[in-house]
Please model this.
Amino acid sequence: MTLLQREREIIVSNEYIDNFDFDEVKEFIKGASKNLFISHKFKTRDNILVQPRGGFPTYDKVFELYGEFKASNVDVLPLTIDSNTRLNDYAMAKKMLALSEENDTNMLNGYPLVNHGYRTTRKMMVHYDTPVSLRHGTPDARLLIETALASGIFEIEGGPITYLLPYSKNFPLDKAFLYWKYVERVCAEYSKLNEPINRESFGPLSATLQPPAIVIVIQLLEMLLSLEEGVKSFSVSFSQTGSMNQDIVSSNVIKKLARKYADKFGHDDAVINLVYHQWMGAFPYNKTYSDSLINTSTVIAAMVGADKIITKTRDEAFGIPTKESNAQAVANVKYTLNMLKGLPNVHDEAEEQNLTLQVDEILEAVFNDSADTLWRKVFNSIKKGYIDIPFSPHIINNNQVITVRDDKGNIRIYNKGNLPLSQKSFEFDREKIRLSKGESVVEKIIQDIGVML
Model:
């Protein structure tokens, strides 16, 4: 038995889950329908894949949600995990699941996959025969991912940076790197049996005024950490910035650099996909404005050549959408995408060159760290502030980088903190910022956060 397999045996020896049968799971994945693999769907698609968000505590409600989505011609189904499971509190998740089932009330904000177990959940996955993406936000996702893969969920979102710094305050970052290394290795092992398991990083980060350079740096580093463990299918992502031009620039740079760095590190056989998140900031209460925002982001997704778009609903400002509203959003996005085929490529050379320079400068500082492994180099770089996520709650994040919008809505770096940017690349951003007479930076930030309200 390998060292990894011994660790896996320990992880699944948990009182809150089914008895785990690794041989049976291996045979299931080996013979699983190609339709369950988004890596296969990416290869055979004729348009941008559309994926909503969504998840309920009980099996029956998720089953009904998937029925609504399938009726709207969805391409990828979501499975959003509840907060207790994200925190590895399976005891509380079990109690709240029981209450949800007894009272027909949602006592959890997602699906407690570990408590439902892979044997039960797999029935739903096989029934719908559609790729499912696991959306969770878990620093230690080892048991969750084992259960998901055994269930037939073959796309795993997240990573040690994107599922920690935007979500957590105190969880140790070094442990997150090691726990996600386990996840990558398990995904790589199962990828040998059928189509590849797809890993996807979470580009929105804290979803508030994120500078594209930081987003792209983190996407590329999580990609490299995944590929070095043997993963062959990876999706980088980012969310709508509020500037169409900046979104197009970001997409051109991230696609170019993802391929460049994957090849540079010897992963030329890896398939890299691009995912675009519709607006992740505060949504307008006016539902007509919400519709316009969603339609605009759909147009941008087509313009940037995304492989997948993750949708929002017109009810976003009011809480968790109904299954009907969620399905309607999918149908509307699919309808809009059908009108947007064959859009021309657009380039803003000056913006692309500077964003490329910023990303390369930060990555060079990361790679030049004296640590002996990539994850330690990244860990040290976060501690030094070379990687700094605005509005992150985590104690290790420096929180010195300040961003505001310029007159055209582009997110610009106002204070670079310890980011290892040259004067040239920093001034490119800084000189485009204009504060109104008497306006403070704090007032500008507040205004820019609510730009879509």
